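Thread: Newbie trying to understand structure tokens

Hi all, I'm a second-year student working on a class project, and my supervisor (Dr. K.) asked me to get a predicted structure for one chain before our next meeting. I've only ever worked with sequences, so writing a 3D structure as a token string is new to me. If someone could post the tokens and maybe explain what I'm looking at, I'd be very grateful. Here's the chain:
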Amino acid sequence: MAQQPSIPKGTRDYTPDVMVKRNYIFDTIKEVFQRHGYLPLETPAMETLSTLLGKYGEEGDKLLFKVLNSGDFLSSASDDELVARDLPRLAGKLCEKGLRYDLTVPLARFVVQHRDEISFPFKRYQVQPVWRADRPQKGRYREFYQCDADVVGSASLLNEAELLQIIDEVYRRLGIRTRVLLNNRKILAGISEVIGCPGKLPEITTAIDKMDKIGNEQVNVELQHRGIPAGAIARLQPILHLAGENDELLDRLQIILGDSPTGLKGVEETRLILEYAGLTGSLEGVKLDLTLARGLSYYTGAIFEVKALDAEIGSITGGGRYDDLTGIFGMPGVPGVGISFGADRIFDVMTRLDLFPRESSSSTRFLFVNLGEREARACLPLLRALRENGHNAELYPDAGRLKKQMTYADRRAIPFVVILGEEELENGTVVVKEMSTGEQRVIPAGDLARWKE
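---
Reply by user tm_fold:
Sure, no problem. This is what the structure looks like when written as tokens:
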């Protein structure tokens, strides 16, 4: 007996009914991106490992999917190296490519590679899958889609405010109530300075970025394992757990970080971003959260995360400023900021909360039943006229029993069935049956294309 086929763990098939809903999410996000002047871009699924490695921090590098070289990939490694099983070293010899981990690093590579072809500031959006060799679990997949919007070549904080506006508009359209968490890596750098660990920012941010997953106590254990002294951990606690409104928190940080120019710069930037967001009407639900760290190492300024209020799931949008990223590819001095919507998690939230519209513009609205060769021929011009007037319509391809075709329409959730039989041919009419109510209307065949619900 043949083995039942399967797919890799952490991946999913998307059935047509699921794709209709996913496309609703994609189309909504794309429309908002375009409304704000962002242009579409696509990059390859694979990048060279030299492009990917070292851009996501120690934890991120471990989650890269590496692609074996073509042909005799073992020829580049000696027998001694194979016996030693030094996997990181072997991977460097056997693999020259990897699947992209996100869309931001490929964007930076693209900007550097095509610097003479694009105009700055460069505003692009990108909707493509990414891959991470993570442990699959609820709400976390190895293959998932990101919907990114980035501005490269501008240091203005108006860009951060615009991204907050985009977040607000997308989730209002989708019907998801959210809380937007905001922080600044300069503030975190200042905190690391005032607790006596100025050179330990990566270790601190990697640990506190797990706060909502493992809790404060385990974060402190990880900080200790990463070499943060007990005294510094103790000084960190009251700062991370400051409470109050955004303005109150910034006022207190102004005092706490008084000896850190970097930290004070982060406070100043955050105040201005919040002021701009208030002017655009997108400040509601934005909360300064000092435990937000965004573990990726390329962030340099404001950082964002979005949580759904009515569903227990991880962040559904994240991003921030990364002013040094293109410098890694030999093009320093090009600032950038962006956000990424996690389409898969958004889908899960909307499914759980039943937020998808009942009817989709991409599904069939009219099904012509097929009662025979003569009747099918008569349906074809009517079918074309419906489509030309903006209606999605199809003809059942095989002549057969009416009950079978009605069952097909019902299972496909097609709202209207068009019946054209011998009597209708003689009278120049069609019967339109509304499937939800069973109501049938007889109308002139020529009026069908002008159908109004």
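A couple of things are worth pointing out once you decode it. The chain is about 40% helix and 20% strand. The chain has three domains: 16-50+101-353, 65-100, 366-450. Feel free to ask follow-ups in this thread.
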